[in-house]
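Recall that a protein's primary structure is simply its ordered list of amino acids. Everything else, from secondary elements to tertiary packing, is in principle encoded there. The following example makes that idea concrete.
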Amino acid sequence: MTDTSQSYVIPCPPTIALPVAGSEACFPVRRVYCIGRNYAAHAIEMGHDPDREEPFFFQKNPDNLDPTGRFPYPPQSQDVHHEAELAVMLKGGGRDIAVDEALDHVFGYAIALDMTRRDLQGEQKARGRPWEIGKAFEASAPVGPVHPAAATGHLDAGAITLHVNGVLRQEGDLNQMIWKVPEQIAYLSRYYELAPGDVILSGTPAGVGPVERGDVMTVAIAGLGEMRVEVV
C-alpha cells in the first residue's frame, strides 16, 4: 500500500523497472522467483536425478535484475557461471492458480541470465545452508527487454542458446523444461500469493560454465531475439 502523504526517515528505494519492447512504459518488478534444475540435461550435469520430482525455487532480489548489458564480475568468487534462462513477467496473481488459467496472468517474456558464484554456492550446499550468497548478488540477473505476450504469443517451445566469445556453450529448447511455465505459476501460487510485477526465471539448459572478465555472452531465445552481455 502506497501513501503519498507519508514521510520517511530515509529516502525511499527506487522502483525497479525494466524496459518493454515497443513501449515507453516500463515493467515494475515486485519479486523474483527462480526454479532450480528444470532441464533434465542440466540436472544431470549438476549431479542430480532429472526425474519429475516436486520443483524447488530460490529467490533473487528485484534490484539484481540488470538491463545494462554489462555484468560486473563479483567479489569473493573465482568461479562465476552463466545460466541462460527465459524470464516470465506476471501481470496478475493470486493463490492456488489453476494450471489451465496460469498463462492468463503472464504479461510477457524476456531473455535473462542467472549468474552464479558457483564456488560460494557449492560451499553453502556442502554446509546445508541457503544459496543466496551464490545467487542473489548485485547485477546477478542480466535481462533484456520485456516482450509482451500479446506480440510474441506464449512461448512453450523454441531454441535457447548461449555463446561466450562466439563459442556455443548452452543449447536447448524451451519444450525441454521439466516443469512448464503454467505449472511453475500454479505451484508457486500454492505457497505464495503471486502478484503483478512478479518475475519467474524458468531454468537453464545444460552447458553452464565459467566466465572471465572481458568475455562477451550472447543469449538467444526463439521469438525474443538475442541479448549481449559483457563481463567487466
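Helices lie at 40-45, 118-126, 132-135, 149-152, 181-191. The CA atoms of residues 18 and 24 lie 11 Å apart.
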